[in-house]
Amino acid sequence: MPIETTLVLIKPGGVQRNLIGTIAQRIEQRGLTLSGLKLIKAERATAEEHYAEHRERPFFGSVVDYLTSGPIVAMAVTGENATKAIRTMMGATNPVDAAPGTIRGDFALSIEDNLTHSSSDPEAAARELSLWFPEGTL
C-alpha cells in the first residue's frame, strides 16, 4: 500500500469549537502521522487558490469568506493510503449525510460549517500541500 501525505484543514468553526485536539487525536489513533501542523489565519489569495476549481460556482465567494473568517489549522497527514483514509474519516461533505463515527457525522450539522477540508486525491493533496506548507513538511 502506498505511503501518502495529504492535507486536512480544520475550518474556523472547528477551531472555534475547540475540536483541534479531538480531530488530531482521531487521525493519530487511526495510525496516521501528523507531518505538519500549524494554526494560521488563511490569506485570502491562498484560500482563493485552494478553491480555484470552484471559482465559477455560486458558492465560491462564501467558502473563501468562511475559510478566511478566523483561525484555521492546516495539517499534513502521512501514512498508508492517507488520502482515502482521511476522506473516509471525515465523512460526507454534507454532515446530515455523514455516518456516525465520522468527524462530520459526530460533530457537524451544516454543509456551511462542515468543520474540515481534506484532499480529494493524491494529486489534489500535492497541490494543496504546496499552498499551505510552502516550507515543506517533515
TrEMBL record:
Question: What is one cellular component GO term in this UniProt entry?
Answer: cytoplasm
Report the residue ranges that make up the Nucleoside diphosphate kinase-like domain in this protein: 3-136
- Keywords of this protein's UniProt record, alphabetized? ATP-binding, Cytoplasm, Kinase, Magnesium, Metal-binding, Nucleotide metabolism, Nucleotide-binding, Phosphoprotein, Transferase
Cite the CDD domains for this sequence: NDPk_I (cd04413)
Keyword Cytoplasm found = yes
Question: Known Pfam families for this protein?
Answer: NDK
Q: Which cofactor does it need?
A: Mg(2+)
Query: What's its EC?
Result: 2.7.4.6
EC class of the enzyme, as a word: transferase
UniProt catalytic activity? a 2'-deoxyribonucleoside 5'-diphosphate + ATP = a 2'-deoxyribonucleoside 5'-triphosphate + ADP; a ribonucleoside 5'-diphosphate + ATP = a ribonucleoside 5'-triphosphate + ADP
What does this protein do, in the record's words?
A: Major role in the synthesis of nucleoside triphosphates other than ATP. The ATP gamma phosphate is transferred to the NDP beta phosphate via a ping-pong mechanism, using a phosphorylated active-site intermediate.
Q: Which PANTHER family match?
A: NUCLEOSIDE DIPHOSPHATE KINASE
Protein family according to the UniProt entry:
Belongs to the NDK family.
Q: Which NCBIfam families match?
A: PRK00668.1 (NF001908)
Supply the name of the protein: Nucleoside diphosphate kinase
